[in-house]
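User: I'm curious whether this sequence folds into something compact or stays loose and floppy. Could you predict its structure so I can see for myself?
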Amino acid sequence: MYHKHTYILKLLCISLCLNMLQAADTNTTIRIMPLGDSLTYDNTYADAVHPRPDGIRTGYRGYLWYMLKDANYTADFVGSQRAGYDVKPPIDPDHEGHMGMTSHEIAALIYDSLALYQPDIILLHAGTNDHTSTPSGVEAILNQINYYKSTSGKDVRVIVAQLMARRAPDARIDIFNKKLKELVYAHMLKGEHLQLVDMYHDASIPSSHYVDATHPDAYGYSRMAAVWFKALTSPYNPALRSYPGTVVSSTYIKDIVFDDAADTVTFTTEIPDTGITF
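Assistant: Here's the prediction. I'll summarize afterward.
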């Protein structure tokens, strides 16, 4: 049995001030770090034998850049990697995608890039190369981001994507995504400015639009870009996520929905047979 508990928050001018991190029609340049592995860099299995020039590799980043430009969203992609610098119309080629790396390997190096490039927003899609059903490496990345935030005093909005599907069904990804959702919710309940997007279902890439078992074609990358774009341009209120408390224990929370426009958080909770004492 499930029960929805809505926690209504009345937020004042602080919401308006912090919303500049989200607004698409702003003169403020938003530093966005696309963070992940080959799906961020744009690398395929075929590139191991006949590598394409880095200058033409854009993955979802190229489509996302064009979408943001069309929406008058002033963005600056940042990161230690560069790919896609030869395409026309030009895109910002900077990113933090590391080909072939597991999420644990990314966690081991990300702090230095955060300190150097100081992103306002991170688009995190990692774990594809882990070949496991446990998102412990993603948690290590989030811990490194939190460490950077504590040492720098800079807040960072992190949009975490559940792993997109492979061309053929993979049960490990289903389990990974379920556990990743629980992990992100646990961090949200601590007041961290995280947002979860469902890249698996929302991108919904047909099997015919993969160039190999893992990597999508241009259409597939455009679908990924659309998921990121929706998250970046939808209403987002970081102050709302600073107060995610509920009278129900986090053990029973199955879903959290933030309504930034209405300043509400809705928790969907499971009621055990023994009931819950409020």
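Summary: Residues 23-234 form a domain with the Rossmann fold fold (CATH 3.40.50.1110). The chain has one domain: 23-234.
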